[in-house]
Amino acid sequence: MNQADNPYLATNFLSAAQADVDERASFITKTYMHLAGAIGAFVLLEAVLLNLPITESLVHSVLGTRYGWMMMLGGFMFVSWIANKWAQSSTSLSTQYLGLSLYVVAQAILMVPLLWMAQRFHSGIIATAGVTTLGLFAVLTTVVFVTRKDFSFLRSVLMFGGFAAMGLIFCGIMFNFALGPIFTYAMIAFACAYILYDTSNVMLHYRTSQYVAASLALFASVALLFWYILQMFMSRD
After folding, report:
1. Mean pLDDT of the chain
2. Is the residue at 6 inside a domain?
3. pLDDT at 5 over 70
4. What is the span of the domain harbouring residue 188?
5. How far is 50 from 116, CA to CA, in rounded Å?
6. Does any domain span residue 87?
7. Residue 78: CA count within 13 A, CB half-sphere
8. How far, in Å, CA of 215 to CA of 168, rounded?
9. What are the distances in angstroms from CA 22 to CA 16, 17, 29?
10. Quick check: 169 and 73 in contact, CB under 8 A?
11. Which of 15, 81, 83, 149 has the smallest CB count inside 10 Å?
12. What's the CA dihedral at 56, 169, 193, 208 to 10 degrees?
């Protein structure tokens, strides 16, 4: 099938920085609307999952063994790889939406044990962590859009930092030791760096047809930031 036969392929494939003002504004609006939709869907999914009768027993089964949590993390990494691949599809918009939906569902399932503990033992802390996360995200987004700085130079740092973080997490699970507050603060900084990186990609490097993939990247960074901000508040409570 050539480009003329496929309406989706016929869309503008210029990067956001190369597109005209109206098209760039449309792309950015679509990206953040999809991000808002993903966050809304995540909140609704968590509201359902946390109130299912079987949730408590499933949480105990995951956290009750050393390798239950490791298997859950491994499964999430595999599913997130598939979801990202689908979201970056250049031939099918429906495949992109499927990837975004799959990632939101996977993230919601992964987050259940932490949110269940927060809900049960730390009243009101989830909302506080959520507001803090969105506030910090708004500040970082504003920094990028005001300064128009390209943070793509962070790619190598984030890639190697991500591998190091996952290695520490799996070692902590295998050898049964807590990573401590310093690791939590470092991961909050790591998530903030990812938000700067992803936001500058939205502004400069994503093609104007990639608003679904861009929203998935931003959602992943926001979810990571929320995860560790919630852990930080729980450790202080």
Report:
1. 84
2. no
3. no
4. 19-236
5. 6
6. yes
7. 6
8. 28
9. 10, 12, 10
10. yes
11. 81
12. -70
Contact 166, 70 (CB under 8 A): no
pLDDT tens figures, 29-42: 999 999 999 999 99
User: Could you tell me the CA-to-CA distances from 230 to 43, 74, 159 in Å, in that order?
Assistant: 15, 21, 23
The total of structural domains in the chain comes to 1
- pLDDT tens figures, 9-36: 444 566 666 767 778 888 899 999 999 9
Single-letter amino acid, residue 86: W
Query: What tokens does 21 get?
Result: 């003002």
Instruction: Kindly report the length of the chain.
Output: 237
| Residue 65, in any domain of the structure | yes
Residue 164: HSE in the Cβ half-sphere, 13 Å Cα cutoff: 10
Which single residue is written with the structure tokens 């946390």? 50
Cα 133 off chain centre by: 12
- Only one residue has tokens 């490791």, namely 70
The answer to whether residue 142 sits within a structural domain is yes
Which residue do the tokens 């049960």 mark?
120
Q: How many CB atoms lie within 10 A of CB 82?
A: 14
- Dump pLDDT digits (tens) for 86-109: 888 776 788 899 999 999 999 998
pTM for this structure?
Answer: 0.87
List the structure tokens of 135: 């506030």
CB 196 within 8 A of CB 145: no
Confidence band of 219 (pLDDT split at 50, 70, 90): very high
- Token duo for residue 134: 């969105």
